[in-house]
Write a structure and sequence with these properties.
There is one protein chain. With 287 residues, the chain is α/β, with parallel strands linked by helices. It has two domains: 88 residues, Translation factors (Elongation Factor Tu (Ef-tu), domain 3), CATH 2.40.30.10; 158 residues, Nucleotide-binding domain of ferredoxin-NADP reductase (FNR) module (Rossmann fold), CATH 3.40.50.80. 32% of the residues lie in helices and 31% in strands. The protein is built from nine helices and 17 strands. A seven-stranded mixed sheet has the order 12-11-10-9-13-14-17, with helices on both faces. The protein has a five-stranded antiparallel sheet with strand order 5-6-2-1-7. Helix 5 packs parallel to helix 6.
Length: 287
């Protein structure tokens, strides 16, 4: 059992957790992730380590409530426990002094881009951050990114804050202005990462993405997280999660991630029904 020491919403349906996990906090590196199980019979979900504090023995994860398990996790508060947390898993980010590095986070992807952007800055890079959301309330970790980026550009789809447009539009604008860019890290929804890859491809800019396929055991044994990169099969849990964006088969990744969409929808509906029933029982008891 791992105790939650902090839990707070930082955007609608997006919650930050700090969880006690001393050994993971001590060993984790940027780009790595953990697998969390909420309860004994729960689904095992992979979540990137957004930050850690070896002195306090905690790791920070940021969770977007999308399916049954993530919504269940987001019901927990400080003082509650998760059944277990395993990690650090996956290969760390390849950190070098590239020169000018752009770190792009789309939505909750900013939580994944942040630790790598921090490491890139520490390695001597000039770091430009581009973080996006549907609207202002969905732009996360802006203050944290400001502290480590030489330039930071928030973007919103609806123009309610910062640059009006997608993160790819801002990246293209920088390139159109003749800005020198040596490295791009892009993390977020699959269509966004694919779009970033197409923006940088003509310029030959080294571009890396962190992939989010369906995972089961996260050890490379089940093969559930297989991805196609450069026409070869890899397992994101042990070979990644980061890969060369210009070689990733994003269409195949999107297709595989939709395989269980009906099962996920049904599980979520049943979970919401149980929550509603519990709420009605409490209302009757308190009436």
């Amino acid at each position: 059992m791992n105790k939650i020491v902090e839990a707070r919403f930082i955007a609608p349906d997006i919650k930050l957790f700090r969880i006690e996990a001393p050994k993971i906090a001590e060993k984790r590196k940027p780009g790595q992730f953990v697998v969390v199980r909420v309860d004994e019979y729960g689904e095992r979900i992979p979540l990137t380590i957004a930050d850690s504090d070896p002195n306090e023995g905690t790791v920070t994860i940021i969770v977007q409530g999308v399916g049954k398990t993530t919504k269940q996790l987001n019901l927990l508060e400080a003082g509650d426990y998760v059944r277990d947390i395993v990690g650090p898993l996956g290969k760390p980010s390849e950190i070098e002094n590239y020169g000018v590095a752009v770190s792009i986070g789309g939505g909750v992807g900013t939580a994944i881009a942040y630790p790598t952007a921090k490491a890139l800055k520490e390695a001597g890079n000039y770091v430009i951050g581009i973080i996006g959301g549907r609207s202002k309330e969905y732009v996360i970790l802006e203050d944290e990114m400001k502290k480590i980026c030489d330039e930071l550009y928030p973007t919103t789809d609806d123009g309610s804050y910062g640059f009006h447009g997608f993160v790819t539009h801002k990246l293209q604008q920088l390139l159109d202005e003749g800005r020198k860019i040596d490295f791009v890290l892009a993390i977020g929804p699959i269509p966004m990462m694919k779009a970033v890859a197409e923006v940088t491809r003509p310029y030959g800019i080294k571009t890396v993405v962190s992939l989010n396929p369906i995972m089961v055991d996260a050890t490379g044994m089940c093969g559930g997280c297989r991805v196609t990169v450069d026409n070869k099969t890899y397992f994101a849990c042990v070979d990644g999660p980061e890969f060369d964006a210009h070689k990733v088969d994003f269409d195949n990744l999107m297709k595989r991630n939709r395989m269980y969409i009906e099962h996920e929808k049904k599980a979520l509906e049943e979970f919401i029904c149980r929550i509603d029933l519990m709420a009605k029982k409490l209302e009757k008891q308190n009436a």
